[in-house]
Every structure is written in structure tokens, then in C-alpha cells.
Amino acid sequence: MSERKFKFVSPGVFLKEIDQSQTAASPEPVGPVIIGRSDRGPAMRPTEVNSYSEFVNVFGAPYSAKTTQDVWRDGNKAGTTYGAYAAKTWLKNSDKLTFIRLLGKQNADATAAGKAGWQAGPGGSDAFGLFLFASGTAAGRLTTSTGTLAAIWYSSAAATNLALSGNTFGQFGGEPKRANAVPIVPVSDGAPTSCRFKLSVYGDKPRRSDGSTTGSYIFDFNPNSKFFIRNVFNTDPSLCNSTQIDDSNVLEKFWLGESFENRLSDVDLITQGATNCFGVMMKMQASGTSNEDGSLFRQASTKAQTNWFITQDFNADTSSFDPANQQRLFKLHARDAGEWTQNNLKVSISNIRYGSLSGSYGSFDVVLRKIDDTDEVLEVVERYSNCSLDSSSPDYVARKIGNKYLFYDTINNVNRTIGQYDNKSKYMYVEVDNSVANGTQNKESIPFGVLGPIQYKSATYLSASNEYGSGTNGANVWPVAEGPFLRGGRSTNGVSGAVSSSCEIFLGDTLYTHLKVNFPGVDIRTSFTGGATINARDAYWGAYTGKSANNPLYAADNQDLTKVKPSSLGTSFTAIAGITTPSWNFSLDDISSSYTSANRIDSAYWSSTYRTAGTSVSANGGYKKVIDLNLAKFTTVFAGGSDGVDIKEKEPFRSGLADNKTDTTSYVFETYKRAIDLCAHPEDIQFNLASVPSLSTPGLTKRLMQHCENRGDALCVMDIENGFLPIADRKTNDSATSTTVTGDVNTAVGSMRDRQLNSSFGCAYYPWVQCLDDDTNKVVYLPPSVVALGVMSYTDSVKGPWFAPAGFTRGGLSTGLTGIPVLNATLRLSSKDRDNLYENRINPIATFPNEGVVVFGQKTLQVTRSALDRINVRRMLIYVKREISLIAANLLFEPNVQNTWSRFIAAATPMLIDVQQRFGIQEYKLVLDETTTTPDLIDQNIMYAKLFIKPTRAIEFIAVDFFITNTGASFED
Predict the structure, then answer these.
(1) Nearest to 940 by CA among 886, 905, 896, 892
(2) Distance between CA atoms of 360 and 393, rounded to whole angstroms?
(3) 528 and 623 together in one domain
(4) Is residue 479 within 8 Å of 490, Cβ to Cβ?
(5) How far apart (Å, rounded) are the C-alpha atoms in residues 238 and 652?
(6) Residue 781 lies in a domain
(7) What would the pLDDT profile of 258-270 be if each residue is shown by its tens digit?
């Protein structure tokens, strides 16, 4: 009783104010969870953003049918990032959402066709490598030559063969027509000074029984030439997708993948003439037991990583020094899978300092840089200064950067966090060697080098003592050398015994050519003057990403060098005997320099032999001398990350790839399922709406709705089957006017009716809409869930979630108030169409002559007639339930007595009054007393309350009777 708060002693009048007009405190906003594709950013983990600018900074701007000159390198942007557009429409009027970016995942029991990633053709061995050589020097009957892999083409048709065309090198007569004949041909076609080649295609569309060519291409490796290889050939794998591209529209079913134009200086192919350069076209596949297939990339998305950073050499005997045998310290992993990290970032170690006392820890900086910067002008993304290898120090490298990473628990369908220290970096985390974590390494250890990224190992060059086998009449047989894709089989008289099985090619009866193949790898800096660095103290040793020794501008073929290796090899991060090896093993112990006694540096160079030869700085002055001369900084790159998607698809997560599939037969189904299951538990992720824009696969959309229903705190906004089919999802022979493309109301309604959905935690809209992206001024087709989210966001911002997100006031789409201007609906619905949709609980997106495009319905998918068959009531209850839950959570473990009950009522009442005053509730009654929390419930530690609510209904039908009366009638009657 309030009078008990007064102190009554002498008579008088006592007054006290009791304020019952308080409004509820504004709760922390909870937005939707949106699942979809984006240009970059955290993958397969829920990530909160609080503004559209933050979303663009983290995930990139949305795009649709974005033109890219080089799809292989720039990425496939032919599809539409529906999830990113949904984020844009929501964040136009609201402040918060959670985004889950999709990257390809696969089930542990996936079938071959159900694995993530891609495969070039239907069979295998559908990758063709062009190996270029400078002519060797004759030595008796043997001509030796060392060349390099220059480019790789991939074919989507098993009948396709690629071969070089021109005059045959040496005495081997005739012109082999097929790639599997392994011909050697010279530069030809009248342009000897530009190292120009002619490639012919055999057996492609149209398929010709005589094996004649269907086309030919003239190309070279000069980026400034109109015949530059990447300008001549198709680089878009989606143009070779036979499931979407009509055969009649396909000229050639192959595309250019990797090319290594900036790595050909080893054989000087850009400047040498025709007589000094020849090429060999071979399939990238090994025969025998190795089964290496250069066209098979069936694997889930992977995280890029560096190789191991290593310590300095403490051995006084330098003659046996090998960086590969040095103590490993740590390596860096991308926090998220995908190619973005290796294509955009590199890492440097700088400001290396040895300990002030002998046997004490030193320090160093870890600097994350943009991949295309130079040593003269660094573009720093993140810097972690004064890092230490002392695991007990606050500056411990794993503590400063973070070492936590996510692991997906396939049993419980949740992400698990592994690691000890929170991630400070947005882009990477640290893995330390056990010796560092346990503190057993030499305490003077500092990162003094790094092992290079993994590349293919060079083919073995046979010595003169074993190069000949037995044979008669000049048909000598040589054993085949070991090397990736080039192992097994024998080669005689110019024709290989097995497809691409030999790196040794015969050119006739009297001339033999013995070849060695060096595969290209990431470059390494060898000189302080290379890459325009004049002061040796400014040079970052190790990985070099410039175009040439004298041109520090970024070389685009670095992206091809750091790509994930074929899945047949098993790993892109650990060397495989006979197949892969580090590009180089770098150590500052191999730096040689001339300097004065005042430590003025005249020159500095790196070679892998300097320390063993005793000519390096550290070999003569110890590792501290390298640091004292300010030569101790170096760089490495990330490599091996992949998106795990089918690159032959314009839209790699289109619903058609998941329809009628399971988690083992489709990586798209499995990926969506994993992302959706991340939304199952309220303890892991908070949201009040959930959507996977453009996904219409019944089993998956229902799964998301069921998670929302089980949680009881979110509404699923789903897209349905038989809607508009955008260009990236359709076949080229689909007519733009057919119902396959435009969608059909009756078919859509029939499909939804067959699904027998019945839940107030789901809703659906129809049809798709044509929008104007006001950032790019491009027209884009978007699924209805995208604009539905925009309408709900606008409604929340101007009224509240208990207002109907529909109608001319809040559901008008043409003005752009809901996030993005809508130009048209893909189908103009008649009144009959609208009735048909609404009767089946699908909310129409209608078009009116004056008002434009409008969301004209707000039903949930609940069949039962009740207040919960409307979106505004369901969203009101989601809001109220969340607020009541937060209030109740603060009372857990408090005494189950009247005082606690009163606190609950006192906290809940202002919130309920606020919703009532804002027209969400007509009336309510909150009961918490002895009638609800009875003694037996108290004995069970239960507090039980009852909340009765009369929700405010929205007007959806207006009926007016017009009475026409006689002149003498009285209106008062």
C-alpha cells in the first residue's frame, strides 16, 4: 500500500506523486537474418551489421549481371546477389540485420555429383596445358630444353581436343591433329618476334567425324597485344554449361583458365623469335596409379593460408643449412573460406627486434597489406606491432591477432569455436607450432623466413646415364620422368604411349628432344633494386607480386598461382612427394649485402645458396647483423582458398540445383541446409524475421519455417515455386514470354496448395518484381521476399511491427520508400489472380494504374481462421513475447514470492501499455498471483503468469452501403 511509505506522526495532509505514464525503454533492435550470396565477407557464419554502409564495407555492394572482362580472374558476377539486395532494402529504414554468406559445402557422404566445387567435363582429363620452351643446345643426338607451363584450357565436352597448329619442330613429319598425340610445334603464322601461336579445336560443336577443326585462334602472351591470350579466348566457364546453354548457341565448349604471362621470363618467350621458342600441348592428367586430374576441382570451400614462418639458423656450421629444416613457428589462416583473401591480401613481417638479453624473446610486427601495393607505397589493412613468441606475454602473437576459428559440428548442426584467444583481426587467425605454444623453442627465435606457397614440382630431368632404353631400327624407348600430370607410360617415335604421360618427346628417327618442365610459382625478390626499390632497407624480401624484376606493379597472374589445387591431389597446403613442393624456402639467413663499417648498405641480394656458401650476412656476422642493417623484413602470400561452387553456373546457388535433391546429391542443397540450421537455436543467433531470397526448394524453405516455429520468435518470409526465372537461372532456349520464365499464378497456387503448409510463422508473396538499383542505375529482377522485407522495415520505422506491412500507405513499392524503387511486377495480376492467391494464403504484389506496384496482402501461412493468420498479429506477438522473455530472464533465481511477482508486473506493464497506445493491442490483462503461481508450482520452482491479449486487427475489407432515397426522405430517420 502506498500509504505505508508515509511517516504519520502529527495530523496533516500528505501528498505523493505516483507516475504511471512511463513508456517502456527502447529495446535493443532485432532485425532479420538473411541468407544469400555476396561479393565477399564472412562466410557460413552469422554476422551482424548495423547500417548499409557497414554491410557494403564487410560484404560488398549488391550486383546483378555485372560485366567483367575476365570472368576467370575477376569472378562470376552474371548472377544476382539476392541476399545482398535484401540487406539493402531492410537497412534503408532499419539499423540491424544478421547476414549469412553462402559458400559451397558438401556432405561427408556426398556422391560424386553431390560434391561441391566443379569439374570441367563429364569424364576427366579435360584440362589442356600449353608448355613453352626455348630451344635447347644440341649435344650429339640429344637436344635439351627447359620450359614452363604457360596456360591451361578447360573443356566441358569430352569430344573436344585442343592442339597447336604450325610447322612441326625437328624432323618429325606431318602435323599431328590431336592433343593426345603430344605434338611439338614452333611459333609460326608470320609473327616470329611476338611469340605468337595458333590453336586449333577438334571434335567440338559441330562434331565432325573426320576430326577436322571447328575453329582456330591466334594468340600470344603480350598483355599489350591485341592477340593477348586473355583477350582472345573465352574466360567465362558458364558459357560452356550444357544444362543451361542450348547446344546451337555454343561455338566452342572450352574456356581459358590460368595463364602465366608474367612468369615466362625464365624462357624469355616474350622477346625471342620463332626459331627460339616452341610449344607442347598436353592434357593435364597422369596415367597409372597416381590419377592426377587437372580438371577435377570437386571440393568444399577452403580457407586460404600462408605456409609456415620459420626461425633463424642457430647452427654455427652453415654448410648444411636448409630453410625447410628450420623450426616452424606459426602460420596464418584466413578467417573465412573463399578466394577473396588470397586475391586481395598479403602479409609482411617487419620491425624485427632481437631480445635485449641473450636468451630472451625478441619482437616483430605482423602487417596485413593489400595484394597490389608495392614496397615503396605500402597499403596497410591491419598492423599488429611488437608481437612476441612468448606464450605467457600479453604480446603473444596468437593473443594479439587471435587464434579462434569456427568448426561446423555436423552432428548437432552448429558452428563450434576452437581456439583460446579472441580474434582481433577481421581477416586472419594464427596457428602456432606446439613448440611455441609450449614455450620449448629457443627463446631467441624470431620469424626469420617463411616457406613459400605450394606449387607443382618440376618434372625430373633424366641424366645421360639412363636416358636410353632398348629398341631396334631407331625406335628407342625411354623411361618417362616423374612429375605432376606427366607420370607413367612410355614414349616412342613422337607418339606418346599414354595420353599426356610423358615429358620426353621424340621428334623423329635421328633427332631426340629431352624436355624438363618447370611449373610456374609465386616469384621471390632476389635484389634490392628489383621492383624499383633503390634503398635496400626499403625492400621486403620473400614473395614478390610485381610484373617483373623492374616493374613492381601487381601481376594479375598471381591469382592463378595461388588458386586451389585440383581435388585429386588431396591438399593445397602440404607438399606431396613427386607432385607438389613449396615455391621457394625463404630465409633472411640467405641475404647477402655489402656495407660499410657504419652499416651503410651499398647492395643486397638473396639466393638460396648464400648461407651454405658462407657469403650471407648472417654467415659472417650472425642473425643480429641482418637486423642491425635493417634488412630484416619480408613478405608472403595467402594461397589455396576456394569458394567451393560450380564455376560453370551463372548463379551457383540457384534453386534448380537443389530441387528434387538431397544433402548428399547436391552441394547446393547441403549448403543451404547448413546455413538454415545455423538459425535453429536462439542462444546462437537473434532475429525476428528470416529469409533466403530466391530459394524456392520446398524442403529447404519449409525447414527454415520450422526453425522459426520451433523458436517461436521469428517469421519466415519465403519465396515459392513457379515464379519468374531470371536469365542466370534459365536455359538459353527458354522463351522470354513462356510461363517457364514469367511464372504462372495457377501453377504457383497449385504447388503451394500441394505442400499443405499450415503455420503462422511463415508467409509468402507473389510475383517477382523489376527494380531499379539506384546505386548503379541498372534494372534488376528481384524475388518478392526482398521487397517484402523492405516493406516490413519501413513499417517498423514509421509505425511498428504490429501494423500491417501492406497497402498503399506502407506497402507502396514504386516510390522507393521501402528500400529500392520497383518499376513493375513481372506479372500484372488481375482481380481474379489476387483472389486466387489470397485465398491460398499467398500475398499478392499488385499493380494499379495510379498507385503503381503495391504489396496487397498480409496473410501468414496458417490455415486455421484466427488472429494469427495475419502478419501484423504474428509480428506483434513475436515482439511482445521477446520483451516479456527479457523481463522474465532478469528474475531467474530470485525468490518466488509476491515481491518478485510485483517486480515482474511492474516491468511488463509499461511495455504492454506502450504497445496498446501504439495500436498493437486493444486490451490486455496480466495475471500473476496465487491463482497462477500456486503452492504446488512454487514447490516446483515455477513462477507462472497469464497474459490475455486482444490484438488489434487490420482493416482488409471495407464495405459501404449506398442508399438512394426519395426527395422527401428525412436522413434523421
Answers:
(1) 896
(2) 12
(3) yes
(4) yes
(5) 10
(6) yes
(7) 999 988 864 444 4
User: Residue 961: which residues within 8 A CB-CB, separation 6 or more?
Assistant: none
Scanning 622-666, the segments in alpha helix (DSSP H) are 623-628
Under 8 Å CB-to-CB from 185, ≥6 apart: which residues? Answer: 164, 165, 166, 167, 168, 169, 175, 278, 279
How far is the C-alpha of 783 from the C-alpha of 766, rounded, in Å? Answer: 8
Query: Mutual orientation of helices 667-677 and 698-711 as an angle, nearest 10°?
Result: 10
What's the half-sphere exposure (Cβ side, CA atoms, 13 Å) at 707? Answer: 28
Query: Which triple of cell numbers denotes residue 400?
Result: 594479439
Per the domain annotation, does 903 fall within a domain? no
Closest CA to 233 of 323, 138, 303, 130: 130
Question: Do residues 505 and 536 both lie within one domain?
Answer: no
Q: What DSSP assignment string belongs to 71-130?
A: HHHH---SSB-HHHHHHHHHHTT-S-EEEEE------TT--TTTSSSEESSSSS--EEEE
Residues 150 and 275 reside in one and the same domain: yes
Predicted confidence band at 926 (pLDDT cuts at 50, 70, 90)? very high
H/E segment holding residue 839: helix 831-839
Distance CA 925, CA 791 (A): 31
pLDDT exceeding 90 applies to what percent of the chain?
60
Note the pLDDT of residue 167. 54
Query: Residue 12's pLDDT is what?
Result: 63
The pTM for the full model equals: 0.89
Query: Domain limits at 860?
Result: 32-105+654-872
* CB-based burial, 143-163: b 16+ in 10 Å, e otherwise: bbbbbbbbbbbbbbbeebbbb
The CATH number of whichever domain residue 843 belongs to comes to 3.40.50.11780
297-306, 415-424, 467-476, 900-909: lowest mean pLDDT where? Answer: 467-476
Tell me, yes or no, whether 567 and 424 share the same domain: yes
What is the tens place of the pLDDT at every residue in 597-648? 666 788 899 999 999 999 999 999 999 999 999 999 999 999 999 999 999 9
Q: What is the C-alpha separation between 520 and 151, in angstroms, rounded? A: 10
**Are 331 and 405 a contacting pair, CB within 8 Å?**
no
Q: Give the three cell numbers for residue 191.
A: 609473327
Give the bridge partners for 324, in sequence order.
none
Specify the range with the lowest mean pLDDT, choosing from 511-525, 530-544, 633-647. Answer: 511-525
Nearest to 827 by CA among 904, 935, 747, 758: 747
